[in-house]
Prior knowledge:
The complex is a heterodimer.
Chain A: H1 11-50
Chain B: H1 8-14, H2 18-37, H3 53-80, H4 83-115, H5 123-144, H6 148-162, H7 165-175, H8 195-239
Helix pairs in contact in B: 2-8, 3-4, 3-5, 3-6, 3-8, 4-5, 4-8, 5-6, 5-7
Amino acid sequence: MSLDLDMxxxxxxxxxxxxxxxxxxxxxxxxxxxxxxxxxKALAEAxxxxxx
Amino acid sequence: MVFGLANPQRFMIxxxxxxxxxxxxxxLLFAAGxxxxxxxxxxxxxxxxxxxxxVHVPAAWMGLFVYAVLGGCSFFALVFRHVxxxxxxxxxxxxxxxxxGLALVTGSLWGRPMWGTWWEWDARLTSVLVLFxxxxxxxxxxxxxxxxxxxxxxxxVLALVGLVNLPIVKFSVDWWNTLHQPTSVLRPDGxxxxxxxxxxxxxxxxxxxxxxxxxxxxxxxxxxxxxxxxALAMRAAGRA
Lengths: 52, 240
């Protein structure tokens, strides 16, 4: 069971497919985490303003 | 237990650690999937392009699965006016759109060396494109109407209409002659592929599933917080 990184004549298709997948999934995770942080901050501010 | 979780606040408390737990599981599964994908033997017909399958097929499965989730949540939001179901539907849409878009792009990269074309208007590819357009339509409709309740109801109806497309995607390769290969995993007589190809595929599929779970729960939390902040802002504006 050895690692095979030589994609031969198909390298121009295999690597972009994996790279695009990694990029899209990474960007999606960053976007969701960024939105979560912004929402937490906005709620904390709103609760602060709402406090008597 | 399940009905207790229908309360947004209880849901937030009960699932507060879930994104982190699923996130760790995702990292471990992706690491295992990556190793297995590049130690698997090349296919006797498709050569190394078979490795595109390990990112393409899970993305396509998730595109379908997330739309079923979106449809189910939309049904509960529309019929029972359920706030959490509406938040869950809204949170699922961009994730499903990303998976479906990824399935289209990676499928195109697989199709070029195998079929000699980047795109073909055959039943499977076209029905997946329609699925992608339903996701985009859902998100566009939600953001185009200012009244959030009206937007939620209109988008829920659209999501339910789009459910019709799911069996078309699934069975398109059986109902019509297509370039796309027929079902090779979820078959009544078992998978047609060998274990050394099937194992990385299933590990990657599990990684995509836990990835979706982590981001979905986190997005539902975000949606609940956003709505609560908006309600507080409206209350403050009413007092002023």
